[in-house]
């Protein structure tokens, strides 16, 4: 009801000039009738015949305004718009000019979208070719490292591993806009996914003498293995990077279905940095101390988690450590073992 009253007010406001002219004309012919001593019945007849005309005119104008308003609301809801001839409200010179202008803008947007798609494809093709080519010298470096003596070869292998990780991260960042096209959902236990990532980074745990504790990871999750493991890799590698002593605990609380906690005993994050750690390119104090930080890992993790139906959050305290929590909106499917 309030919308109807508000719209009627808008119609009256839009046609205020016409209403004002009508009132001025009424005042003129009333004055003329009065000066000529015309009977009062003439006044009433004149108003009786003209007021319905004004009402019909305002209704017509209101109907046109409503159609135009609905058309523009429809355009606002679209990420981009493609205009058809039948979409437009027929009108006079200005309406035709607006129609031509909007059609021109629509064609321009379509052209820009097509060019952007072509550029994106060319960029993906280029980086795909570059990735394929860069793997050849990386493989050659790996062979050379194997011929060197420890402990130098161990450090070189770790650096080569990091290069490969950053290379994969770059490709995944490029695919982020069309990530949903790459999903393949299957059911896994949390334990097998977590252990897969832990095994991948086993040499870093050994090198830094960090302990890993897994607890109550019997739950199951239906997800995309590659992208879920990517989230785990970013979180776990950050924990390794910023933890000097102690270790990492990964567990799923028995009283919190659908939650996976990754807790470390690292240096922690400043309180003012915590709300912004998932922002694109934000590195915070720790990132500025560690010049290798890109500020993309947690940003990508959050974007991917949203696509997978997972909420990711982080809490931290300086000198105590950091805890990242992954919560599935559907909850993990608990696997209860029967007593024998």
Blueprint of the fold:
Layout: H1 2-14, H2 16-35, H3 40-76, H4 93-146, H5 152-174, E1 185-189, H6 190-200, H7 202-208, E2 211-215, E3 220-224, H8 225-241, E4 247-251, E5 259-264, H9 284-289, H10 297-308, E6 310-317, E7 321-328
Parallel strand pairs: 2-4
Antiparallel strand pairs: 1-3, 4-5, 5-7, 6-7
Helix pairs in contact: 1-3, 2-3, 4-5, 6-8, 8-10
Report on the architecture of this protein.
The chain is of the alpha+beta class. The protein has three domains: 2-77; 117-177; 184-328, Heat Shock Protein 90, CATH 3.30.565. The protein is 59% helix and 12% strand. The chain has ten helices and seven strands. The strands form two sheets. It has a five-stranded mixed beta sheet, covered by helices on one side. Strands 1-3 form a two-stranded antiparallel sheet. β4 and β5 (259-264) form a beta hairpin. α4 packs antiparallel against α5. It is elongated, with a radius of gyration of 34 Å.
